[in-house]
Structures are given as structure tokens and as C-alpha cells.
Design goal:
Helix content is 67%, strand content 0%. It has 132 residues and is mainly alpha-helical.
Length: 132
């Protein structure tokens, strides 16, 4: 009888193995989206931290500038430099560029043909850049 018994081979893929494979695939599929979201959120957190650090540096710089403006000597120096203020007893003077002539130049003729507001803005730009 021992010789007559045939050895039965078990199939390679049993029902339990198929269910286990299906469960593993379902877990991988279920965890893929949350993991992607987690990685994306970590990236956003890093970006926000970098932006927060930049904003903190800017706040620190503005605080230093505010502290400078609290110093009366700094305010006086800025008024003299930027606004050309002079204290009583000072002799203010303005250097005139000798290359400009009082005769009508092509720029003046061009400005005469422009609307008044463009001439005004042009003269403001010229005055602003003359101090540099």
C-alpha cells in the first residue's frame, strides 16, 4: 500500500496565499496615497520654514533700521543728505552741472510737444537722478 499511495503535490498558489497577496497589494495601494501626501506636506513645511526664516531676517533688519532712525544725529544726517536741509548758520550751496546750457535743447523741444503730465513726470525723474 505504501507503494501505491501517490504523493500529492500541493499547488503552488493556495487560496490562503492568494488572499495574503491580495491583502498585501491592498495595503500597499491604501498606503501609497497617504505616503505621497506625507512627503508633499514635509516639503511644504520645509518651504514654509525657509520663508519664515527669511521673514525673520527681514524683521530683524527693519528693527535695526528703526533703531537707527531713533538716533537724532542719524535723522539730522539723513535730512541734510536727502532733503538738502541746512541748520541756521550753515551756508547751503548747490553744484550746477556746467554741461547744461540755457538754450533750447532737443530734449526741451521734445518736452514741449508732450502732454503736461509727461513733462512733469520727466522733470521729477531728472531731479531724482540728479542727486545720485
Amino acid at each position: 500500500m505504501a507503494g501505491q499511495q501517490q504523493v500529492r503535490r500541493r499547488p503552488r498558489l493556495t487560496g490562503r496565499a492568494a488572499v495574503l497577496a491580495l491583502v498585501v497589494c491592498a495595503l500597499v495601494a491604501a498606503l501609497a496615497y497617504p505616503m505621497r501626501q506625507f512627503i508633499a506636506q514635509r516639503s511644504q513645511i520645509d518651504q514654509q520654514r525657509a520663508a519664515q526664516q527669511q521673514a525673520q531676517r527681514q524683521v530683524d533688519e527693519l528693527r535695526r533700521e528703526k533703531a537707527r532712525w531713533q538716533d537724532p544725529a542719524f535723522v539730522e544726517a539723513q535730512a541734510r543728505q536727502r532733503l538738502h536741509f541746512a541748520l541756521p548758520g550753515d551756508t547751503p550751496f548747490t553744484a550746477v552741472n556746467p554741461s547744461t546750457s540755457p538754450t533750447a535743447s532737443p530734449t526741451a523741444q521734445q518736452q514741449a510737444s508732450q502732454p503736461w503730465y509727461q513733462s512733469l513726470l520727466g522733470s521729477l525723474d531728472t531731479a531724482d537722478h540728479a542727486g545720485h
